[in-house]
């Protein structure tokens, strides 16, 4: 049996996963290099690089929650919030209603209109003939006009870099999922998040079976947690294992 088919069956690949800021790199060449006689543990090692272990003292106060929506309900209201990788804004809408933030910064490259189809719907139909960014601004016009929402269009680390240090209370990171990109985001976030602030990492998983794409999120996040002595406070479940992990950033910057 072809390995790609085997993996798809193992992961019960049905439907699609949201494509946000990421420019996915297909695994076809990687998967084709494997043969059915390859041992499962060798295949998994290739797809899932060794992750730095999170020390137990950084897990003592962690809490398991049903999903990311329940996680968000446990965060403080009237905060300064950034969502990095907003796609169509459905989660942004939920966050705005639940957290009632003082300021909400929506960051994305806003390039989905360049795809012919998104979620099996034509992009022209989905975005009503507008650009992705234009459609998003229209959807959240009320929040923008009230000064609650700011929309930043560009690469995540560049857009985060526009803000002062120690600015955000909460940052929800769901941008490019490659290891290098997540590290770039975190190299900026560690200065922009307030001491005691919360960082939530979406798609804390090593492999996306729908797009056959390896994720560098867990490796980059675990390194960040260890390097910055971050306390893990929530782990949110998700039916297809695209988990969320939330940390409290404890280190005060000079």
Describe this structure in words.
The chain is an alpha/beta fold and 254 residues long. It has one domain: Vaccinia Virus protein VP39 (Rossmann fold), CATH 3.40.50.150. The protein contains eleven helices and twelve strands. It has an eight-stranded mixed beta sheet. Strands 4-5 form a two-stranded antiparallel ribbon. A two-stranded antiparallel sheet has the order 9-10. Helix 10 runs parallel beside helix 11. The longest helix is centred in the C-terminal third of the chain and has 14 residues, at 179-192. The model is unreliable at 1-43 (pLDDT under 50).
Layout: helices, strands, pairs:
Elements: H1 3-10, H2 28-32, H3 40-47, E1 63-65, H4 68-73, E2 80-84, H5 90-99, E3 103-108, E4 117-118, E5 121-122, H6 123-126, H7 132-139, H8 141-145, E6 149-153, H9 156-160, E7 168-173, H10 179-192, E8 193-201, E9 207-208, E10 213-214, H11 217-228, E11 231-236, E12 244-248
Please state the second-level CATH architecture: 3-Layer(aba) Sandwich
What do we call the CATH topology? Rossmann fold
Distance between the termini: 56 Å
Question: What is the residue-averaged pLDDT?
Answer: 86
Beta percentage is 15-25%
Global structural class: alpha/beta
Biggest sheet, spatial arrangement of strands: 1-11-12-8-7-2-3-6
CATH class term: Alpha Beta
Q: List the uncertain runs.
A: 1-43
Rg, nearest Å: 19 Å
Could you give the count of β-strands? Answer: 12
**SS element count, helices:** 11
How many strands, which pairing sense, and closed or not: the largest β-sheet? Answer: 8 strands, mixed
């Amino acid at each position: 049996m072809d390995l790609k088919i085997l993996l798809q069956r193992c992961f019960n690949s049905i439907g699609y996963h949201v494509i946000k800021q990421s420019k996915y790199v297909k695994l076809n060449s990687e998967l084709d290099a494997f043969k059915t006689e390859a041992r499962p543990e060798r295949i998994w090692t290739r797809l899932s690089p060794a992750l730095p272990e999170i020390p137990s003292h950084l897990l003592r106060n962690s809490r398991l929650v049903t999903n990311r929506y329940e996680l968000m309900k446990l965060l403080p209201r009237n905060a300064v919030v950034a969502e990095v990788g907003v796609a169509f804004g459905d989660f942004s809408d939920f966050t705005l209603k639940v957290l009632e933030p003082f300021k909400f910064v929506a960051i994305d490259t806003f390039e989905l209109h360049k795809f012919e189809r998104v979620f099996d719907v034509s992009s022209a139909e989905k975005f009503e003939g507008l650009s992705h960014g234009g459609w998003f601004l229209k959807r959240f016009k009320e929040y923008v006009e009230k000064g609650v929402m700011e929309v930043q269009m560009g690469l995540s680390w560049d857009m985060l870099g526009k803000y002062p240090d120690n600015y955000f209370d909460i940052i929800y990171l769901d941008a490019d999922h490659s290891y290098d990109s997540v590290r770039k985001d975190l190299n900026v976030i560690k200065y922009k998040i307030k001491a005691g602030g919360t960082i939530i990492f979406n798609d804390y998983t090593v492999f996306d079976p729908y797009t056959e794409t390896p994720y560098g999120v867990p490796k980059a996040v675990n390194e960040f947690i260890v390097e910055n002595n971050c306390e893990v406070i929530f782990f949110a479940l998700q039916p297809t294992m695209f988990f969320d992990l939330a940390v409290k950033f404890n280190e005060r910057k000079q």
